[in-house]
Amino acid sequence: MTKETAIDLEVGLNFLQAVREKAGPMATANEVVLLVPRRGGKVLLHTKSFYPAGTYRLPTGRMLPGETPEVAFGREFREELGQDGAIERKLGIIRCRLISGNESVEIVSHVYLSQELAQEPYASDEDEQITGFVDVPFEELSTVARRLRALPNAWRDWGRFRAIAHDFVAGLDYKSL
Fold first, then answer.
1. Which of the residues 12, 24, 62, 133 has the least number of beta carbons within 10 Å of its own beta carbon?
2. Which of 62, 58, 67 is nearest to 130 (CA)?
3. Cβ–Cβ < 8 Å for 55, 152
């Protein structure tokens, strides 16, 4: 059974407009969030060249127009982790409405648990600008969310938005995954 949650998040107009621009002609931005288990009860996070130093997060990627969440999962897994991934199961859906004044945009995040990643990940798409991976204990996802929410001003709204998926996953019972 998948969990579904809805969140309203007040953000600055610049961040909202950047999200709207990436969504293109779609009224809603859709993405997939990848929870990739590793040995010892750990999960995979990544960082990108343009993130603030020490910033890691769950791999995510936007869905292209006409793509199903499952197809986007496969494409994003290959682009960001360099190999084919298999869905273990869908964990849930997060509907986040970003609000700035009278304007809003919705982002729907489809959260998937993949099968355990046996090989070391590597970014196969250079445009992703992924520069590193780290395995963290599942129990530390709440700490990762706190760090994202505490990012400096220029990254504040992005970090607060990205923290939502980490909180969502951290709130699940890892043993039942």
1. 24
2. 58
3. no
pLDDT, tens digit, 9 for 90 and up, residues 129-169: 999 999 999 999 999 999 999 999 899 999 999 999 999 99
Cβ proximity of 94 and 108 under 8 Å: yes
Collapsing DSSP to helix, strand or coil, 66 comes out as coil
Q: Which two tokens stand for residue 140?
A: 């530390």
Name the residue type at position 123: A
Structural domains of the chain, ranges and CATH numbers in brackets: 3-176 (3.90.79.10)
Question: What DSSP designation does 153 have?
Answer: G
153 HSE (CA, 13 A, CB side): 0
User: Cα(171)–Cα(76) distance, rounded to whole angstroms?
Assistant: 24
Q: Which residue has tokens 């950047």?
A: 18
Parallel, antiparallel, or unpaired for β 103-114 and 3-10? unpaired
Q: How many whole angstroms separate alpha carbon 16 and alpha carbon 21?
A: 9
Q: Which of 57, 62, 60 is nearest to 44 (CA)?
A: 57
**Token pair for residue 177?**
């995954």
Nearest by Cα to 132 from 21, 40, 28, 51: 51
**Sheet containing strand 130-137, strands side by side:** 37-38, 42-48, 130-137
**Virtual CA dihedral for 172, 8, 141, 2, nearest 10 degrees?**
20
Any bridge partners for residue 4, and if so which? 93
